[in-house]
Write a structure and sequence with these properties.
One of its GO terms (cellular component) is plastid stroma. This is ATP-dependent Clp protease proteolytic subunit. By secondary structure, this protein is an alpha/beta fold. The protein contains 7 helices and 9 strands, in the order ββαβαβαβαββααβαβ.
Amino acid sequence: MPVGVPKVLVSLPDEEEEEEPTWVELYSEFSHRGVLFLCRELEEESANQITGLIIYLSMEDNTRELYLFINSIGGSLMYGMAMHSVIRYVPTDVNTICLGIAASVASYILLAGTKEKRFAFPHSRIMIHQPSGSITEGNVTHLVNESTELLNLRITLTRVYAELTGKPFSVLWADMERDFYMSAEEAKDYGIIDSIGLPPGW
């Protein structure tokens, strides 16, 4: 096996039987099978790659389920909100699975999985909190506008968490005042995930 980027041997459809299998990058093969990973802080590049793959794979075959494995401390709120929307509104069912941690906006992405297809490993940790920002410079109008936008984002996030978990808005608002950590079992009771373990058939 080549040293460097993990690769696996794959027999490509257009290869003759006598030809040697081809080395393919591991994550390319995973993507081909509808298995995606968010295992770092969410930023522009990773968000756009995963979002693009979800859209492409759902267009290629909207009857095949996708699987997004998450192990992330969060990251960019706006990119995470875009990914959340794509997961919820593509025609394909998307399983979301927390491997280790889904914190901040990563928990919002975990929540976006198809109903009854949101999972977490037994020792996973899930954390929700209100959005934060740094507003230290600018005139009064600028500061007011930025503060208003942060408040609007918080209201939007809280409404979606309430809608998808079944918890009252007031409960979410209070819990998100701080870093609110949950075990997998607690996240299931809270309504962020549906089951503990892997999707059926794995």
